[in-house]
Design brief:
Layout lengths: L12 H12 L6 H27 L5 H34 L3
């Protein structure tokens, strides 16, 4: 019985080593940085929706761009709320664990 090698899925050893070194040196924030980037994206989507709506009120905006920007902001907010709910649920589950 011969075993075939597992494909690397496009990740090279050098890339993995560099990523590990960056995390080990604290250059990448990990989970907290990912959450912060997601929140920043949500806020940015809200600002873009506001700008598009203001442009539409002054007559300079396109209605389809306004609707698209608002839909993106709404989806980003719903996603953020879902992540928040899951984090709170995970915290509550951890707190209920017996020691």
């Amino acid at each position: 019985m011969s075993l075939s090698p597992v494909p690397a899925q496009g990740v090279r050893a050098a890339q993995a080593a560099n990523a590990y070194a960056a995390v080990d040196q604290g250059q990448q924030g990990g989970f907290a940085a990912a959450l912060q980037n997601a929140l920043d994206g949500t806020v940015q989507a809200g600002h873009e929706a506001d700008a598009q709506a203001a442009a539409a009120l002054t007559g300079a905006g396109n209605l389809s761009e306004v609707v698209t920007a608002i839909a993106k902001a709404e989806l980003a907010l719903q996603t953020t709320m879902a992540v928040r709910d899951r984090v709170v649920q995970a915290y509550q589950d951890i707190m209920r664990m017996p020691i």
